[in-house]
Design a protein that fits this description.
By secondary structure, the chain is an alpha/beta fold. The protein has seven helices and four strands; from the N terminus they run E-H-H-E-H-H-H-H-E-H-E. It starts with a strand and ends in a 7-residue tail after the last strand.
Amino acid sequence: MAVLVDTPVWSVIFRKQFSTLRPDERAAFREFDNLVQVGRPMLIGPVRQEVLSGLKSRQHFDHLRDRLSVFPDEPLATQDYEVAARMSYDCRAAGVIGSLTDMLICAISARNELTILTLDKDFERYARVLHIRLHPVPPGG
C-alpha cells in the first residue's frame, strides 16, 4: 500500500545532505528509500508547493521541481477539503491546533486508508483525535 509523505520528509530527502541529518532524519531517509524501491511514496499538491517554496535560487527551484516530477500528485476532491475542515474543527475542539496542509494530509490519509510518513510531532497529537495512522520508521541513525 502507498504511504503519504509529509513535507519535512521530502525536505530531508531533497534539500539536505545525508551527512548533516539527525538520527531521526536518517531513519526517515532510509524508510523513504525503502518505499521508493517498491513504488509506494505518495505526494499531494500542497505538500509539493511547501517543498518548493522558499528556495534560494531559480536554479535550485528548477532542479528540485524536476526531481519531484517523478512523483505524481494524488488527486484532491472537494470532499477532501471538507473533511480536512471537519478534522481541523475536531482537533481544535480537543485543544489540538493544526495547519491547513496538515489537515489535508490527514483527510487524504483517512480517505485512502494510508499511513503518513512524517518527522512532524504534531501528527502524533492529531492521531490521538483523528482516525489516522502514522507510518512506522525503524530506529537507527
